[in-house]
Amino acid sequence: MTDKKKLQIAVGKRIKELREKQKIQQQDIAAACNIEKSNFSRIEAGNTNPTIYTLSKIADRLSVSLSELLDFKKNKK
Description:
This protein is mainly α.
């Protein structure tokens, strides 16, 4: 697995973790970010490389900073 794919998966897991913690459905956050639900699902699965703008919209909707959204390394042990 490439480093790029590992990073995409890590970002996707972090988004899913934050979304589930807030009990937000995928379709609700996708709609709020003006993203198709299928595309949002691919982001969470790590199957696409979202732009920084898309990540910023997701962070805003989750009420976290972009840096907090990308702070997935602290969860590794």
